[in-house]
TrEMBL record:
This is DMT family transporter. It is found in: Membrane. Residues 4-131, 148-282 form the EamA domain. It comes from the Bacteria. The chain crosses the membrane at residues 29-49, 61-81, 87-109, 145-165, 177-198, 210-231, 243-259, 265-282.
Length: 291
């Protein structure tokens, strides 16, 4: 089940690559969130899971939704829309455990071990090798895979990292399904506003786009959440966290197979080093928790 969860999660980046030729990123995600809510809210009602009763908790959950879903997915989709390869986008946001560990010290008072510091350094070295093999700094800010794409995916990385810390600090009492629905509501409002202000909102309703949208809604936004609930119930949440470092290579393999996205040997070496850095950080954190 944890392996299945990671395999499903990695297809989100591929779904972005498939769907973005037919809709702009904020418009695409707004439609995805609305479709998800049309399924998720009735599911909450059928399962009779209580909604949070505290307006303050609703507010905190909405903030995490804007960060974890709005900023994260908005940044990833916009970066891929601007030309960043799906595998590289996956690797960049896959550094989230490194950034979270680095920020947890000053924000939450959690000290880093020497192995975690080593993991942070290796992650930075690895991503530098990957970017050095792929990024063309001569491109303009919003042209192809230039600084615009890098800025967007970096914003996604910051969003998921800050959102994770914020949720850990303020949303410990969040019920999973209703909380996820509230997060999607907030993210839909954020990205819907972005689509209204900055995009044409034109959608080419091709078969490919509708199939991609259906996959992202049913498999990613609904099934993956239910699978995560089952894993947590079985006490395997830590195993899921330890397998998340497999998402970048799995995504890169899928992108190579479907879109012929390739990394040079220097980039592949950098990906391996970065993933090993994430493994060090995650494993060390798990061992300290068990101790």
């Amino acid at each position: 089940m944890p392996v299945l969860f990671v395999l499903l999660w990695s297809t989100g980046f591929i779904g972005a690559k498939f769907g973005l030729p037919y809709a702009e990123p904020f418009t695409f995600l707004f439609i995805r969130f609305i479709c998800t809510l049309l399924l998720l809210v009735p599911l909450v009602m059928v399962m009779r899971v209580p909604w949070p009763t505290s307006p303050k908790l609703w507010g905190h959950i909405a903030v995490t939704g804007c960060l974890v879903h709005g900023t994260y997915l908005g940044g990833v989709f916009y970066g891929i829309y601007l030309g960043m390869p799906a595998g590289l986008a996956s690797l960049l946001v896959g550094l989230q455990p490194l950034l979270t560990a680095a920020c947890a010290g000053p924000l939450l008072g959690e000290a880093l071990t020497k192995r975690q510091w080593l993991g942070l350094v290796l992650g930075l070295v690895g991503i530098s090798l990957v970017l050095g093999s792929k990024l063309d700094p001569s491109e303009s800010l919003f042209d192809g895979f230039g600084l615009g794409a890098l800025f967007s995916v970096t914003a996604a990385l910051l969003g998921i990292s800050i959102g994770t810390l914020y949720q850990k600090r303020f949303c410990t009492r969040m019920p999973l399904l209703p909380g996820t629905a509230i997060q999607y509501m907030a993210a839909a409002l954020l990205l819907g506003s972005g689509a209204l202000l900055f995009e044409t909102r034109n959608v080419d309703w091709t078969t490919t786009f509708m199939l991609t949208l259906g996959w992202l809604v049913l498999i990613l936004s609904i099934s993956a959440i239910l699978l995560l609930m089952a894993l947590i119930k079985k006490g395997e949440a830590s195993r899921v966290a330890s397998l998340f470092y497999l998402v970048p290579p799995v995504t890169a393999l899928q992108a190579w197979w479907l879109f012929d996205e390739r990394l040079p040997w220097l980039g592949l070496l950098g990906m391996a080093i970065a993933i090993f850095g994430v493994v060090l950080v995650v494993k060390t954190a798990q061992n300290s928790t068990k101790a």
